[in-house]
UniProtKB/TrEMBL annotation:
It is found in: Cytoplasm. The gene is pyrH_2. Residues 1-202 form the Aspartate/glutamate/uridylate kinase domain. Belongs to the UMP kinase family. This is Uridylate kinase. ATP binds at residues 9-10, 44, 48, 139, 145, 148. CDD domains: AAK_UMPK-PyrH-Pf. Homohexamer. UMP binds at residues 43, 65, 113-119. It comes from Methanobrevibacter cuticularis. Inhibited by UTP.
C-alpha cells in the first residue's frame, strides 16, 4: 500500500526535543516494511514565530510563506536524521523529486513546496500525484469538530464527513501563512477530485498510525464526494 502521512509541526515540535521524532521514526520504519511511505512535515510553533517576525517587517504574505516553508523543511531534515538509513537523505523540493526519491525504496520526507500551499495541501497533492491508496493527516486534536475544541467544551467530533461538506464548512475562513484552519480548500479539493481515502486523527500518540491501518475507529474519515 502507498501511504502519505502528514504530521503536524505542532506535534513534532511540541516539546522541542528529539523524543517525538524518535517515536515516529520507529513507527514509520515498521510501516515501511510492508508499505511505501511518504511523509509531509508541518512547521508548528517555530514556523509561526518566524512568520510573525516577517509579517511585522511588512514583507507580504508570500515572504511569510517562504520562511514557513524553510522551517517545515528543517523539521523534515530532523525526521530524516531520526530515521537514519531508512529515509531518503534529501528533502524533495517538489512532487516530481518526491516520486523520484521513492524509487530508492526508502521513506521520503518532505515539507512545504511553494507559497499559498499549506502542508495539508502538499500532502493531498502528493497523495494525488503518487496515486496513493491512503492519506493520513495527524494533527493535535482528535479529528474534525463542529467548532474549535480548544475554545469550546461542547465541540463535537465529526466521525465522518464528505469532502463537499468540508468545503462548505471552511469556505468563508480567512487563510494566511502560519494560521491554523482545519484543512484548507486546496487539500479538500484534491481529496474530492481524486476520490482519496483520508483519515484525520490525533498524532500525539504515533501508535495511532497503526490503529488507522488496522481500520480501528479513530478520528474523522473524509468521504471523497
Amino acid at each position: 500500500m502507498r501511504i502519505v502521512v502528514a504530521i503536524g509541526g505542532s506535534i513534532l515540535m511540541k516539546e522541542y526535543d528529539y523524543k517525538k521524532f524518535q517515536e515516529y521514526a520507529e513507527i514509520l520504519r515498521f510501516l515501511a516494511q510492508e508499505n511505501e511511505i511518504f511523509v509531509v512535515v508541518g512547521g508548528g510553533k517555530p514556523a509561526r514565530d518566524y512568520i510573525s517576525i516577517v509579517r511585522d517587517l511588512k514583507c507580504g504574505e508570500a515572504k511569510c510563506d517562504d520562511i514557513g516553508i524553510e522551517v517545515t523543511r528543517l523539521n523534515a531534515k530532523l525526521l530524516i536524521l531520526a530515521l537514519k538509513n531508512d529515509a531518503y537523505p534529501s528533502v524533495p523540493h517538489n512532487f516530481q523529486e518526491a516520486e523520484k526519491y521513492s524509487a530508492s525504496g526508502k521513506i521520503v520526507i518532505m515539507g512545504g513546496t511553494e507559497p499559498a500551499h499549506s502542508t495539508d495541501a502538499v500532502s493531498a497533492i502528493l497523495a494525488e500525484y503518487t496515486k496513493a491508496d491512503l492519506l493520513i493527516n495527524l494533527t493535535s486534536v482528535d479529528g474534525m469538530y463542529d467548532k474549535d475544541p480548544t475554545n469550546n467544551s461542547d465541540a463535537k467530533l465529526i466521525e465522518e464527513i464528505t469532502a463537499t461538506e468540508m468545503l462548505e464548512f471552511i469556505k468563508n475562513k480567512d487563510v494566511k501563512a502560519g494560521t491554523y484552519e482545519f484543512f484548507d480548500m486546496t487539500a479538500i479539493q484534491m481529496i474530492k477530485r481524486s476520490s482519496l481515502e483520508t483519515v484525520i486523527a490525533n498524532g500525539n500518540d504515533p501508535k495511532n498510525l497503526l490503529k488507522i491501518l488496522k481500520k480501528e475507529k479513530l478520528g474523522t474519515r473524509i468521504i471523497a464526494k
